[in-house]
Structure formats: C-alpha cells, structure tokens
Design a protein that fits this description.
This protein is about 70% helix and about 0% strand. It is an all-alpha fold and about 220 residues long. The radius of gyration is 18 Å and the shape is globular.
Length: about 220
C-alpha cells in the first residue's frame, strides 16, 4: 500500500478510478440538500454554508484521489473538518438550544477529543488504521447529540436522521479502517465504499439541519444554563 490506498498502485492521475468517481456522490448529496433548502424557503444561511461544504468535500476528495500531494490533501481534509466541527456547533445550538458560550465551549471540547483520539491512534494503531482514529470522535459526537435529542418529542424527526447517520457512519468508518488490511485479497480496497456511505451520512445531516425544528432559547433558559 505504497500510495496509501489499495486501489492506487502508481502515481498516475487515474490510478484510483473508484476512489475518484465515487466522490460524485458528495456532489449529489450537496445538490439534493440544496434542492431541499430551496423548498424550505431558501433563507437559512447556516444550512447553505453546510451544503457548500459538502460540495467542497466532493471536489477536494476528487482532487486528492487523482493528484495526491500536500495541497490536495488540504483540499480534501479542510472541508471535512470544517463541516464536522461546524455541524456539531450547529447541532448544539439549533437542536439542543444551548447558549452561545456553551456551544463554543462544547465545540472546543469536541475538537480536543478529536485531536486526542487522533494522537492516540497514531501511537497505538497500524499505519493503515491510524488515520481513522480521529473520526471516532465524530461518531461519538453524532451518537451523543442524537441521544440528547431523543428526550425532546419535538425533535423526533431530526433525531431519527442523526441516528441513521450514526449507523451509516459506523459502517463507513469500519470500511475505511480495513482498506489497508484487505489489499491482498481485495485489490480495489474499500475506501470507495467510505465515500458512498459518507455521502449518505452527509445528506441525512443536511436534511436534519434544513428541516429540523429549532427549540426556542429563552432568556430565562439561557441564564439557567
């Protein structure tokens, strides 16, 4: 696995056809999210930013899987990170109705968890699996928010979407983690399945953000927190 993924055996542009082409699924998720956003009135600027980040994920990942270098790696990773931490903040504020300061603190704590798990993964896991360790924080974050939302009947719809997204992400993270271990028996690897499943995850999250109800944050409740 010299080039990082089972499918890539040389440095050519089209050496990862499945890993490259399946990024179209992110673009489909972004366009589907945009269509839904327009149907909901097209006034939610925060949701529109999340949709744009999903589109950027598809473009950045395609670039990295066709021209792998330091700059395309950044184009791949940065939109993912912005979406993950941005969505967590949106979920705390929009779904759970937390105050601004608590949302900022919670998001920073979430960032610390992701960095800690990433460092631990690099220290104890094989090279092919270490890159997946930081994503465990995203899974924990999704599950945690979904669990908190389950206590509010008004959030039943978005809670169901986040729960489905958590299950799909658990499967996609498993497939990402075993890609290197299966190179000998499965030359095409499993990273392309990570793309397809994650596109589904992102659409579910966009749908929750666009259609989910926002609990009212009253002055008294903010002071109580």
């Amino acid at each position: 696995m010299q080039f990082g993924y089972c499918e890539r055996i040389d440095g050519g542009f089209w050496a990862e056809p499945l890993n490259a082409v399946t990024n179209a699924a992110f673009l489909v998720a972004a366009f589907a999210g945009f269509w839904l956003w327009r149907r909901q009135g097209g006034r939610d600027a925060v949701a529109l930013v999340l949709i744009a980040l999903v589109f950027a994920i598809g473009i950045g990942s395609f670039l990295f899987h066709t021209i792998p270098n330091r700059w395309t790696l950044l184009a791949d990773v940065v939109p993912i990170q912005l979406f993950a931490f941005g969505y967590f903040a949106v979920a705390l504020r929009r779904f759970l109705g937390l105050s601004g300061p608590i949302t900022v603190f919670g998001t920073l704590a979430f960032l610390g968890l992701a960095l800690g798990l990433s460092a631990a993964g690099r220290a104890v896991l094989p090279a092919g699996m270490a890159g997946s360790a930081g994503y465990v924080a995203f899974l924990l974050g999704l599950l945690g928010v979904a669990l908190a939302m389950s206590r509010a009947p008004a959030l039943r719809g978005p809670c169901r979407l986040l729960t489905l997204a958590s299950g799909a992400f658990a499967m996609s993270l498993t497939l990402r983690s075993i890609d290197g271990a299966l190179c000998g028996s499965l030359p095409l690897g499993t990273h392309w399945l990570w793309h397809l499943l994650n596109a589904s995850v992102l659409y579910l999250l966009l749908r929750a953000a666009v259609t989910g109800k926002r609990p009212a944050v009253t002055a008294s409740s903010s002071r109580g927190r």
